[in-house]
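Exercise 3.2. Students should predict the tertiary structure of the chain below and write it as structure tokens, then compare their answer with the key that follows.

Predict this chain's 3D structure.
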Amino acid sequence: MNTDRHGLVGRVIDGICRVILWLSTTVIFVILVVNTALRYATGSSLEWANEIPELLFPWLVMSGVVLAALHNAHIATTFLMDALPAHARRVVAAVAWSVVAVLYATLSWATFNMIEIVHDEKSPILQMPGSLTYGCVMGGMLLLAVLAGQSAWQSWHCRDAAAQPDGEPQAPAVHW
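Answer key:
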């Protein structure tokens, strides 16, 4: 799976999400292993060992969601698009991706407006603000909006598509 259809933006998003995915997975794994070993060896555990995974899990999930969208690695229902002629498929794909981009941008904006409210919510032991997890959701939605906007643009212009037997370029797949 490549990110060529998203160009430099796709490669940057891919790199950022992979780093977040690996870091969060590694930190969660190490903390859980150390805490489990402490429980069996000493009968005690780290007080904060539950909070860090709870804070990092949304980052892990969001980076995975963005990577799945970037690589078209999610479940798709395409039979309706496959039934359309190539020109109609291009128009429907561009409109659908545009709607998706606007919806993700709206979710990102709504999350941004909530960050100030949830910033006052602190984790019990480490006193980490709730805005950390909302920030990752906001960032993920923003990245998804960018990717959907690029897909809308590419669907309309069909830059990266191969020609169909009827001579028209194929629009990139729309995933519902």
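Discussion points: Residues 8-157 form one domain. The helical segments are 7-42, 51-70, 79-82, 86-118, 131-157.
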